[in-house]
Amino acid sequence: MPKTSSGTNWWRGLCAPMTMSSKADEKYGSSVSSGQIEVGVSEKVEPLIDIEIEVDDWLDVLPEAQAVVEAGVTAALNAVEISGQADIVVLLTDDREMRGLNKQYRKKDSATNVLSFPASKDMQMPGMTHLGDMALGLETCVREAKEQGKTVKNHVLHLTIHGTLHLLGYDHMTDAEAEEMEALERDILKALGVADPYGTEHTHG
Prior knowledge:
alpha/beta, Collagenase (Catalytic Domain), 5-stranded mixed β-sheet, 6 helices
């Protein structure tokens, strides 16, 4: 099982700033790409996932929020070749905080569902890959799940996978990048028993 904790320090100030995205920009937050990690079969990693639940309403809406985030991060990391211990910090917050982060780092004055902050190279330590930070906004996640006919659980799972892939260097700045990233997300979610999030039918998440 992945090692987890809550109430840890939120490190966004030490990570790379956000950049503007083109395709899927209204769906997902984007991040600076520091080089994509090659996809392939890898040994199972046990990431260190630090989860900070800033808004208690997360646990009212999704009591298993921590377990869902852990599952998404771990599944994404196990879908690519990454060696050694991996570390990610996840902030579960609200739309107000997300709007502030989005405005500060992406110059977009609106809330969004997920934002990724890749760690800078000088934050790395031998034997430990600090991938960076991720933030998810509760109200937007809940609203999107309802609009798309998904469960909140499956939508948050998908967004966590999406955000983790951004930390691994994936992006959707071009159509080709978007297609590659979305295909990988579909494969990861399929392995977890979750339907295609980009399909026309979302009733079962």
